[in-house]
Amino acid sequence: KLFFSTAAESSDCIQPLRTQNSWMHLACWLVRCSLVYLIILVTESLSLSPDPDTFIYTNFMKSHCCYDAIPTSSKLVIFDTTLQVKKAFFALVANGVRAAPLWDSKLQCFVGMLTITDFINILHRYYKSPLVQIYELEEHKIETWREIYLQYSINRLISITPDSSLFEAIYSLLKNKIHRLPVIDPASGNVLHILTHKRILKFLHIFGSMIPKPRFLQKQINEVAIGTFKQIATVQESASVYDALTIFVERRVSALPVVNEQGKVVALYSRFDVINLAAQKNYNNLNMTMQEAIASRACCVEGVLKCYPYETLETIIDRIAKAEVHRLVLVDSDDVVRGIVSLSDLLQALVLTPAGIDALYS
Fold it and tell me: How far is C-alpha 241 from the chain's CA centre?
């Protein structure tokens, strides 16, 4: 990690007082002024807001910068845009990361991100193409793919500085519908970290004990209505992997509950699972069923992490933070899918909504 320091103020700017009593009088006066000012602020805050708990998480995120949330040690993989697409995705799998900043050696700057979403878009666009065989894309360079893909997407790198607040980071993530936000040092141009929803919630979960616990955390999830409860994107276990990719592309969701004929959830298929197709070299066989794809996962995946309508918001946040997942599937007593509670939903409700900002649904 890089450490930033600020120059201390010059002692020449402060004229020494003549006696020790003067110092004591000044100190007492400053304390009294500070207390009065604090009382005024608290009084105004309570009079303006019927519930003082409302802004606890909003103010917490505004008072901490992105640098605070960067772990002491983390892995960062960077790709040159001249690297072959196939090698890039294999490198993501080998290093266990889900995205990498892209460096353009000609422009001498970072120009974008390579994510699992790119891999999904490549597979979905060319798998059934009569003009291009999917294996031909293996030889494409990242820059070649970007020239094609950027015709249909935003041609700019969305990033943030280390001293920007976590509130700004949350707004940028949700507003731009992205899951990875590079933290770039404006002085050196270096990428320090890739900030995610999960990292921000984990930071809040770790240091949340330092702030008062809001009373609304004891409310049940069906009371606060945080999550998606209508038009929930699911996929049948008899459907093909290509069908799942189509839903990922069209609905722009990060995971799909896999359901059986009775509508009961039997598994969860996420975007990250798609990258395993590259590791197993199965991307030429997207006609396999979801049941087959789940059974052939490279890593052992435990059962679906679920939550129930009667559980409290605090319980759900703890479960997501401890399991380090991006969402929980809300089910009824019969394990039928009734909703999805994601990190985006939680951050919108806890941090942005109290500030009058609707970045998630705007």
Answer: 25
The two tokens of residue 81 are: 């845009």
150-165 pLDDT, tens digit each = 655 556 789 999 999 9
pLDDT tens track for 319-359: 999 988 899 999 999 999 999 999 999 999 999 999 999 88
Are residues 269 and 244 in contact, defined by beta-carbon separation less than 8 angstroms? Answer: yes
Quote the pTM value.
0.80
Per-residue pLDDT tens digits for 267-286: 999 988 888 776 666 667 78
CATH top-level class of 214-355 = alpha beta
From residue 162, alpha-carbon distances to 177, 293, 342 in Å are 20, 40, 25
Which residue ranges make up each domain of the chain?
214-355
